[in-house]
């Protein structure tokens, strides 16, 4: 039984147990993940069963997505995946115009993009993030300059333990966005506001 056939049976079961269409769709998402049929189709089948339909099989109809798997479709999907690896199977179905199952088959059997293959592709990233040289830097807290830390800059200007109004928080947030240059940022802001900068201000900014 295909995923969609199982889902249609599940929709019929939910209807008979007085589970709403919205909750039925959420349950299908939890059970089938990315393979879940669209919300529009779930609601359509729910309505059909509610109006008396008994059969759960999906008869062939004009305009139905093609289930053919040919060299052209394989090539097209390969190009799309290489161009954007964040595309979901549902995205590929809409872009190529073939069925969900056909896209799955192409990805798995023709392009070899199984779960293990994906894990192999991202494994080097995780290995580089756990190298001893990088982890040793964490021990000395040398991974980031304080002035480059947005949170550090924000809480330094508006400490958590002190009350600050909305305007103060907004000013602190804006200044923190450009705080990589330290207190010289304040001098630039003062210049833009046409505030005269004295000797002591320049001296303190250098500290």
From TrEMBL:
<dbReference type="InterPro" id="IPR052709">
    <property type="entry name" value="Transposase-MT_Hybrid"/>
</dbReference>
<dbReference type="Pfam" id="PF17906">
    <property type="entry name" value="HTH_48"/>
</dbReference>
<feature type="domain" description="Mos1 transposase HTH">
    <location>
        <begin position="8"/>
        <end position="52"/>
    </location>
</feature>
<dbReference type="InterPro" id="IPR041426">
    <property type="entry name" value="Mos1_HTH"/>
</dbReference>
<protein>
    <recommendedName>
        <fullName>Mos1 transposase HTH domain-containing protein</fullName>
    </recommendedName>
</protein>
């Amino acid at each position: 039984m295909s995923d969609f056939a199982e889902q249609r049976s599940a929709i019929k079961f939910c209807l008979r147990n007085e589970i709403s269409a919205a909750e039925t769709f959420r349950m299908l998402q939890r059970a089938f993940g990315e393979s879940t049929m669209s919300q529009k189709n779930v609601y359509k089948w729910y309505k059909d069963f509610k109006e008396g339909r008994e059969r759960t099989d999906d008869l062939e109809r004009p305009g139905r997505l093609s289930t053919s798997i040919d060299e052209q479709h394989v090539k097209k999907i390969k190009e799309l995946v290489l161009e954007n690896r964040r595309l979901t199977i549902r995205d590929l179905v809409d872009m190529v115009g073939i069925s969900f199952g056909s896209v799955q088959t192409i990805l798995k059997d023709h392009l070899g993009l199984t779960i293990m293959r994906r894990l192999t592709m991202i494994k080097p990233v995780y290995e580089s993030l756990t190298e001893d040289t990088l982890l040793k830097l964490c021990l000395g807290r040398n991974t980031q300059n304080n002035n480059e830390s947005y949170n550090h800059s924000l809480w330094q200007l508006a400490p958590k333990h002190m009350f600050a109004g909305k305007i103060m928080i907004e000013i602190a947030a804006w200044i923190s966005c450009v705080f990589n240059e330290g207190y010289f940022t304040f001098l630039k802001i003062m210049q833009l506001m046409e505030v005269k900068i004295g000797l002591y201000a320049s001296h303190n900014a250098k500290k």
